[in-house]
Amino acid sequence: MGRSSKDKRDIYYRLAKEEGWRARSAFKLLQLDEEFGLFKGVKRAVDLCAAPGSWSQVLSRKLRVKISDGDGGSEEVRSEEVKIVAVDLQAMAPLPGVTQIQGDITKISTAQEIIRHFEGQPADLVVCDGAPDVTGLHDVDEYIQAQLLLAALNITTHVLKPGGTFIAKIFRGKDVTLLYSQLKIFFSGVTCAKPRSSRNSSIEAFVVCLNYSPPEGYVPNMSNPLLDHSYDVDFNQLEGPNRIIVPFLACGDLSAFDSDRTYPLKLDASREYQYTPPTQPPICPPYQQACHLRKNNLLAKEGSPSLPLDQALSSMQLSSQEQQSAPDTKQS
Ligand SMILES: C[S@@+](CC[C@H](N)C(=O)[O-])C[C@H]1O[C@@H](n2cnc3c(N)ncnc32)[C@H](O)[C@@H]1O
After folding, report:
1. Is 123 exposed, middle or buried (0-12, 13-18, 19+ CB in 10 A)?
2. Protein residue whose Cα sits closest to atom 14 of ligand 1
3. 299 lines ligand 1 (CB under 6 A)
């Protein structure tokens, strides 16, 4: 796909580059905030599964206060009070005011590290846009996504203050009511929200969980994500009061761009289209090795023996050392 055709096909991808967001997902959190006012009074926030960092960018831009410098201008200051922690398995390029933890959200050590960073104080807000690598097998993908959400809920029970807010990506698959029932044990308000920038063609949505209020005597425990409560596994057949339903909310009105539509490159008559490069190229993408092998014609070809992996890897290390010593190094 050509560079400009992706801009044409995906309006939020293009707007993200124009406005300096690292990923189009930034608009999802912005639109959720427009609907729910998520950031009011938030001083400590956690971004789970944060890479490449567009949600952390939103937190950084929205939470850090602007103070007037007295000359009519304004100066952004890093408020001592605002702390943002971003967690991901992958490394991500630094962001102002955001502390990064390269770690796994299913591990208790990650929860402890977050708490250490907040000096023992609980978080006001936890967001999670986590997604596993999709396999294309819908049932498997939904299951893994559900497990990731429960891991996020688990870590949240360790770090969130009573009354706090939790936002997480959810796949509205056939077993989604089990997740709703789990969330409703911990939060008095649970809504399933679909921002306009999330494609209608995707089963993705976001649970907005307000007012964290764990059951009395609940002790956070990473090894047991599902609480054993009276939940009938045959929930799809349930009718009436036993069925777990949470309100569904489409965020944004019809004036927002439709993420499933294709838009012309020239959006407004007064402005010519100009290609904008991505805001932050990935710093250590998992496909780096494959790109290197292809670029250097090292990929195995039909009928010819492939280069042994250790040779391919050492040629890659050599090439990255050469790149680092070159004065005009560019990230590919
Ligand atoms: C869709 S991306 C997040 C995009 C991000 N919200 C943004 O706006 O830039 C999903 C991320 O989940 C991360 N992830 C998946 N499983 C994880 C785990 N167990 N612990 C930490 N991060 C995880 C992946 O590494 C990936 O970076």
Report:
1. buried
2. 49
3. no
For the stretch 222-256, pLDDT in tens is 765 565 555 555 544 445 555 677 999 988 777 88
Q: Where are the domains of the chain?
A: 3-251, 288-325
- As given in the structure block, the two tokens for residue 243 are 């069925």
CA 236 to centroid of chain Cα atoms: 29
CATH architecture of 3-251: 3-Layer(aba) Sandwich (3.40)
Ligand 1 centroid to Cα of residue 90, in Å, is 8
Measured on CA atoms in the order 302, 306, 309, 315, is the torsion positive or negative? negative
Tokens 């009354």 belong to 163
Assess whether the C-beta atom of 232 lies below 6 angstroms from ligand 1.
Answer: no
Percent with pLDDT over 90 in the chain: 50
* Ligand 1 in reach of 144 Cβ (< 6 A): no
What is the spatial distance between Cα 20 and Cα 40, in angstroms, rounded to a whole number?
A: 23
Q: Quick one: pLDDT band at residue 328, thresholds 50, 70, 90?
A: very low
CA of 107 to the centre of ligand 1 (A): 15
What is the value of pTM for the model shown?
0.83
For residue 310, pLDDT over 80 is answered with no
Pocket test for ligand 1, best of 49, 104, 199 (most atoms within 8 A of CB): 49
Mean pLDDT value of segment 4-22: 90
Distance between CA 264 and CA 313 in Å, rounded?
43
